[in-house]
Amino acid sequence: MGITSQRQSSSTTWAADAAYHSSLGASHDLPTITSAHQTTATFEEFWAEKREAAFQAIYIEERLDREGFAGLLEAYQFSSKRPLTDEVIAIMAEVPGILPREPSVERVAKRMVDFIESFEEGMGDIEGV
Asked: Which Pfam family, an example, fits this chain (predicted)?
């Protein structure tokens, strides 16, 4: 491969990387942060937005009752016990048939656990940072 084709390949890769990062919603207009408190507040706002977006994605995609799903999340966070099949079925807009019921409930429960692990557990108190 010649130098010209290497440069074209690199340009294509850089363009693809830029397009990829743009598709992720990366902003080039980053806020100016002047203090540690402002960093914490900015991060907390960012995290709350991402948490709400993930919460909405789950209950919309899985066709769940919003308040019911929030209640299951709260119960799981308090007890660390996965919800019972009947509890998940109760918040579904459409009850799946007998055969798809178990995989549907398992998928919702897994997404719920993943949500808690991603957005709640392990965050600790970021004030000490």
From this structure: EcoR124_C
Q: Is residue 33 a contact partner of residue 39, using CB atoms and an 8 Å limit?
A: yes
**pLDDT tens digits along 66-123:** 999 999 999 999 999 999 999 999 999 999 999 999 999 999 999 999 999 998 876 6
pTM of the full predicted structure?
0.67
- Please name the residue that has the structure tokens 């507040």: 41
Q: Give the list of residues 6+ apart from residue 83 with CB closer than 8 angstroms, or none.
A: 72, 75, 76, 109, 112
How far is Cα 21 from Cα 46, in angstroms, rounded to an integer? 17
Beta bridge partners of 64: 92
Domain borders along the chain are: 35-124
In the chain, the amino acid numbered 80 is S
Per-residue 3-state assignment (H helix, E strand, C coil) for 48-108: HHHHHHHHHHHHHHCCECHHHHHHHHHHHHHHCCCCCHHHHHHCECCCCCHHHHHHHHHHH
∠ CA 58-23-21, rounded to 5°: 120
